[in-house]
Amino acid sequence: AVAELEQPGGLGRVIADGAGHLERIVEARDASPEELAIGRVNAGLYALPAPEIFARLAGLKADNAQGELYLTDAVSGAARDGRRVQLVSLADPHEALGVNDRLELARVHRLLSERKVRQLALGGATFLEPATTTVGAEVEAGRDCVVEGGVTLLGRTTLGAGVTVRAGAWLRDCRVADGATIEPCSVLDGAVVGAGCRVGPFARLRPGAVLEPAARVGNFVEVKNATLGAGARAGHLAYLGDATVGAGANIGAGVVTCNYDGTAKHRTTIGERAFIGSDTLLVAPVEVGADATTGAGSVITRDVPAGALAVERAPQKTIEGWAARRRGRREKSD
Question: What is the pTM for the complete model shown?
């Protein structure tokens, strides 16, 4: 098989006779300047007769610039001896590209990504900046998806219809249902995102994260091996690990499920419509019941019954005139 390349690089050049059959194959290091100017290259795919080819391989000699045995010399020898060698052009010339260094590897990686973007775009997805988007071979995207620039989609990631993935997001092995939005610079790995959810910006969903429909995970929220029920919200600056959060619950800023005791992981359960106040630490294993509330800054170590309020913090102490007394002490010390 042969291909015509604009930049054939170090690939062997194929010299054809007037009838379009093989005359010889010349490796790049052995080629003359005129031969190097030829764009037709050897794609390295052959259909060869046995046992004839084995006899020709046995007669190879390393009399070339690299001091190697060229398998292509066996094919060239057959042509020289009068055997007609048919040249078959590849439908996609890029299939002939070789990878001999990191730059060539980057080139074929980009070509494969562009090929996948084209396939998905022709199927109804929109890629606003294809040149800066990386899409793996197994990725699927539904109609009317919008993928902005700088996005990376890897593994078996699937995007439902009408999904929006904003600039700089990174997804691997994720399932994102219809109408969900992944905001900029979010990182999702092995996560399931339900219909109508919003994730980010700057959110992280680790393996085992499941967001049920219309759940919301905001900026700087990390979710690991945890489920957020339908309509549950964790707006910002929270860690939810090894947890189950009921539908409609609200997770305040700075909430942490303290799931690791130094030896084993433990689960936290938060009931439907529960309100977890900002900066609450939930020391697992612990359960907060449906419609329960925790006061801001509390460290919750015991279960909270449904509908109850749990507050755990030292009473506030206010000292009047503190600033004046402190200034006085400073003036005396000076």
Answer: 0.84
